[in-house]
Amino acid sequence: MLVYFFKKILFLLSSLFLLMTLTFILMKAMPGDPFSQEQAMSRQEHHSLLKQHGLNLSYLEQYKNYLYSTLKGDLGNSLIYQNRTVNRLIRETFPTSAYLGLQALTLALSLSLFLGLLCALKPDSPIDYLIQIVMALGISIPGFILATILQYLFSIKWHLLPIARWGTFSHTILPCLTLAALPTAFMTRLIRNNLLEVLQMDYIKTAKAKGLHPLVLLLRHALRNALLPVLTYLGPLASVLLIGSFIVENIYSIPGLGQWYVNSVTNRDYPLIMGLTLFYSLLLMSLNFIVDIAYGFLDPRIRIFSEEE
Amino acid sequence: MQRIVPRLHRTAWQKFQQQPMGMCGIYLLVALALFVSLSGFFSPFRYDEIHLIAKNHPPSLRFWFGTDDLGRDVLIRTSYGAYISLCIALATVIIDLILGFLIGSLAALSGKKTGECLMRFLDIFYSIPTLLIAILLSVILGSGFFSIVLAINLISWITMARIVRGQLLLLKEMDFVMASRSLGASSSRILFTHLLPNTWGPIMLTLTMTIPSAIFSEAFLSFLGLGIQAPMASWGTMAHEGLAAFQYYPWRLFFPAAFISITMLAFYLIGEGLKKSFNNAPAMNLP
Amino acid sequence: MFAKLISLLGLAIITLLTSCYPEKPPINKKSTLRISTETEPQTFDPRHVRDLSDTTYMHLLYEGLTRSEKNGKIVPGMAETYSTSADKKTYVFKIRKSQWSDGQPVTAYDFYETWKTMLDPEFPAPNAYQLYVIKGAKDTKEGKISFEESGIQALDDRTLVVELENPTPYFLTLASSYFFYPTCRAARIDSKIDQMEQVTNGPFRLEKGSRLSNEWIMVPNPYYWDRSAVKLDEIQILKIDNSTALHMFDQNELEWAGSPLSTIPIDALASLKQKGDLNIQPAHGVYFLRLNTEHPPFNNTKFRRALAFALNRTDLVQHVLQGNQIPAQGYLPSSEEASKPLFRDHDVKLAKKLFAESLKEQGLTSSSLPTILVCYANNPRSHKIAQVLQQQWKEAFDLHVELQSCESKVFYDHLNRHNYQIGIGSWFADIQDPISFLDVFKYRNNGTNNTQWEHPDYIRLMDESAQAKSKKREDLLKQAEKLLITEMPIIPLFYSTYNYLQSARLKGVYFSDLGYLDLKRAYLEKNPGNVNH
Fold first, then answer.
1. Judged by CB atoms within 8 Å, which residues 223-282 of C form the interface with B?
2. Measured between alpha carbons, how far is A40 from C249 in angstroms, rounded to an integer?
3. Any CB–CB contact under 8 A between B20 and chain C?
4. Under 8 Å CB-to-CB from C350, ≥6 apart: which residues?
5. Which domain holds residue B142?
6. Of the candidates B200, B201, B192, B218, which has an alpha carbon nearest to the alpha carbon of residue B90?
7. What are the Cα distances from residue A286, in Å, to A231, A305, B118, C506?
8. Using a CB-CB distance cutoff of 8 angstroms, which residues of chain C are in contact with residue A82?
9. What is the residue-averaged pLDDT of chain C?
10. Given a cut of 80, is residue C22 above it in pLDDT?
11. How close, in Å, is residue C244 to chain A by CA atoms?
12. Nearest alpha carbon to residue A284 among B155, B109, B125
């Protein structure tokens, strides 16, 4: 077991290193630098700005310095926002996006479980069709439109919820709904389809013939197998939700981490780009790791841990 | 009792024709195609024809879908937008199917070590900011349709690969596969006969998610300045521009958004129809 | 059976509801001014400011030697009194007894040391060149002489002496700008990253712990020498998306939206104007097209002029921009000395003639012209402008023009490398003087020029104006503008305006036409009962 974990960690570190190198290369390949603007500075000022931030050194030199400081735990300072370190930025904004993401994830999971079960219990019934159509629509409305429509209806027209910003529970409702829409739609149909397939299997028919209550059947036997594909989707879904969405954070003015992903790239804020990529990758890999373990729990036949084959 | 998997395409098509959902989907697409070609033929306006005086007019006899902020006819622009959005959809389908399915299968069916390695590579690529890649592609290839399609799909196929891998991991442990193998079936036969039909469902489902995702990613990237050049616009771009004016001139948002939804609905219905026509009770015997 | 399902759903709902978040305390009755901003403040150190929005924060948090009030009046700021020598080249400022927001006294040395750092060759201060009116400043910055040899001296804690290169009539106005602001000792010695407490000397200070949550809170600075003039209890600067900000303003959740810190969506302008809610103020800025004068066919003057005269700026301003901008018929905004238009807008006949002549001169025909490309950084306004330009040139010359929208940094890169043909650009002045506009195109190597155009007569006119006095100077600058228009390395489009929404309760705001908000004397009227504008 220990060997397994050790290998895993080594693997993780080497993939992180590969990622950082790739990102660094791609990042520097982009034209433009953090300080170019239309109202340009004199070349001298521009040069001394670059020098102050160490951007006039060779790329290799810069990368070495960056790696060294990262190993010490210092992800660098933002080049654009002069009094912020990357560490602090992540520390301040991640809890907010994570909170919202968790809320959306919970909503999406529970709602899709509920609806998926409902559809699987009564396949091809009117309610099944209705739910499926609604879910199909849910997938075909883009996030930015949904956010604006929800904002317009619930906030501007009906004055039920706050328009934007962050601070109380009611501020979280609209962004949560916006974030949860697409995953709910997708997972509902995934669960429904998988359940229906599983329900056709022989062992289910056997259990039914033995007189088992349909709901118990569903929950105890069928659900486990139906959930496995959902689990695959859950890893990246969780990582995307926890990191935060640029669109939702912009429209609802939420101080989360998601907006920085886009802003850092358009600003060419190199330390921030690297730091965020690193952070996201760590998050994703840990979540995938958890998913892999959960796989083993749900279906022991999927031997993730052993060294067979 | 095992049900035999129908492999003949002729039978599948006949089965498809019996599906009301699937046929609905086909009819919708046909209607869309008709709309696009007829409007292209009969419209008195070009898609880039600006009438500043008539800007932001609601739907009227002259402009059936109203005009946008530069006085252009929304109907003909929606029709042109169909080309772009559908091309994006097609590209997504192709890339997802080919890359996603291939790599996903590779990851699931090859050895433990190779599979792990591959998944780690996928994780790495997934973690690189997509915007970075989009900007670089637009610089190298010049902003335009090709670079943006590449930018969107270079990362999105990874989701498909993951789902395929997950499904195949599950399936390959099943008894019927082992039974097949013990009977001496070759790997490719197992793949195509047993595994693929059972993966079809999740693949279709994922496609119905990645296609609209791709269309909206294109809208988002256009908003940042990468992508097809004005005055061409895709549905996503039109919807995005209509969004800011939603309260004042709702038709600018309504028509492109409605067309996106209808098209996605059509794809969904076709997908359901395909699934049902390929239907086979998997001969799985789970304990 | 359904009961079990319902319980499942119920569980989910309870999970959500129990994810409690501490409720914010209800808003108390302080007079709070809430402003929406599009972008985050990049810096609170006046030496590093580059962005237009940041200048508002500077004017809220700091104060210079003098202060600019409504109508351009100059009143004493940190300097209680000031006197000039007979030759108008030396100024003596007597710094008043006042303190920084941490209680430390403001001294002449604060000014001395701050300007010293700005003129340090190694210190990157984007606005250092504004100090070049001071004797020896340019040389100090270039490392030729030491700071002690320049014209700035602090005789003691309360006396600052400044010697200028030439008599500069607008120096006192300059001294009120943010590039001449002081910084406190702590900021100079140890520019601590993540410094939570910004020490400032102006009417307001940044409240502790407010750099989170997309909002920045400012409260009156208790140590400000004119504290009694400050009426507001709190200023909240909130980062909000532009459309959302409009809605929030409608619901009285904001007292100010739009320029200078954010933009009102163009599509909303028509309806806002109709309701009478929109405030419009001319800005000290001009939008123009940069032409790469080394890239054929733009090396031909007639071609450039043809393109310029064919445009219908009135249509552009009226239908596309809708903010009551002013079609440009010269280069300097009309808020400068009112001048006769230097060319006619939408003079298609003249344009066609020039176009034909330019083609003949270059030995080209319409079909053998290389593809014309208009490049721009993608934002909603430039996007619309570009498409209209495309249409207008097509109508005038049957000329097919292609558009190339770029991500903004990519666009600036193109400009710097002169890798463009036509680029949409703008220029906003730092000081209320035409020189701020005309200087841009003096030398082709100027960082902002990028047109690769330079003209010996233009340089001569600018140099002479530096020595000349008021009327003569005006004349020379006007001649320079005329030369610029004759040569047309840029095609002026329109003079910008500030569009904003101001709550009816908010009074006493000074919105400078340089684009910053001065809220020192702002106050909110108490409106008992219905608060509707």
1. 242-243, 265-268, 270-271
2. 34
3. no
4. C309, C344
5. 21-35+66-280
6. B218
7. 14, 16, 17, 52
8. 42-43, 45, 48, 193
9. 86
10. no
11. 7
12. B125
Chains that touch A (3 or more CB pairs under 8 A): B, C
**Is B9 a domain residue?**
no
pLDDT at C30: 79
Task: Please state whether the peptide bond connecting residue C260 to the residue before it is cis, i.e. omega within 30 degrees of 0.
Answer: yes
What interface predicted TM-score (ipTM) does this complex get?
0.85
Minimum-distance CB partner of B127 among A280, A307, A308: A280
pLDDT score for B49: 87
**Mean pLDDT rounded to a whole number for chain A:** 85
B-facing residues of C in 365-384 (CB < 8 A) are 377-378, 380, 383-384
Position A214 pLDDT exceeds 90: no
pLDDT digits (tens, 9 = 90+) for A30-74: 888 888 887 777 777 888 888 888 888 888 988 999 998 888 888
Could C248 and A164 be called an inter-chain contact, meaning their C-beta atoms sit closer than 8 Å? yes
Cα torsion C520, C526, C531, C533 to 10°: value is -40
Residues of A with Cβ-Cβ distance to C241 under 8 angstroms: 164, 250-251, 253
Could you tell me the CATH number of the domain that includes residue B161?
A: 1.10.3720.10
For A127, other C-beta atoms within 10 Å of its C-beta total 12
- Partners of residue A91 in chain C, C-beta under 8 Å: none
- Confidence tier at C5 by pLDDT (50, 70, 90): low
The token duo for A111 is: 């709602």
Interface contacts A/C by beta carbons within 8 Å: 170
Which member of C268, C388, C402 has the closest CB to residue B70?
Answer: C388
User: Out of A28-42, A158-172, C243-257, which region has the weakest mean confidence (pLDDT)?
Assistant: A28-42
The predicted pLDDT at position B249 comes to 92
The arithmetic mean of pLDDT across residues C34-52, rounded, is 88
Q: Report the chain C residue with the minimal C-alpha distance to residue B52.
A: C319
Q: Looking at the domain assignment, is residue B12 inside a domain?
A: no
Peptide bond into B231 cis (omega under 30): yes
Out of B6-15, C400-409, C464-473, C477-486, least confident range: B6-15
Q: Which of C201, C188, C39, C172 is nearest to C104 (CA)?
A: C201
- B202-216, C25-39, C89-103: range with lowest mean pLDDT: C25-39
Distance from the Cα of B105 to chain A's closest Cα (Å) equals: 14
Distance of CA C372 to the CA centre of its chain: 30
CB atoms closer than 10 angstroms to residue C103 = 9
pLDDT interval class at C27 (50, 70, 90): low
- Residue with the larger pLDDT of the pair C193 and B220: B220
Per the domain annotation, does B55 fall within a domain?
Answer: no
- Closest chain A residue to B244, measured at CA: A148
- Asked whether the beta carbons of residue C50 and residue A37 sit closer than 8 angstroms, the reply is yes
The whole-number average pLDDT for the span A64-86 is 86
Nearest by CB to C407, which of B48, B70, B225? B225
pLDDT at position B283, please?
39
Q: Do A213 and C123 touch (CB under 8 A)?
A: no
For the record, the structure tokens of C176 come out as 């009120």
pTM of the model: 0.88
Q: What angle do CA A61, A67, A69 make, to 5 degrees?
A: 100
Number of domains present in the structure of chain B: 1
Q: Do A165 and C240 touch (CB under 8 A)?
A: yes
- Tell me, yes or no, whether B250 lies in a domain: yes
Residue C2 has pLDDT above 80, yes or no: no
For chain B, say whether C402 makes contact (Cβ under 8 Å): yes
CA-based Rg of chain A, rounded to a whole angstrom? 24
Q: Which of residues 121-180 of A touch B (CB under 8 A)?
A: 133, 136-137, 139-145, 148-149, 152
Question: What's the average model confidence in pLDDT over C198-223?
Answer: 83
Q: Given this model, what pLDDT does residue B213 score?
A: 85
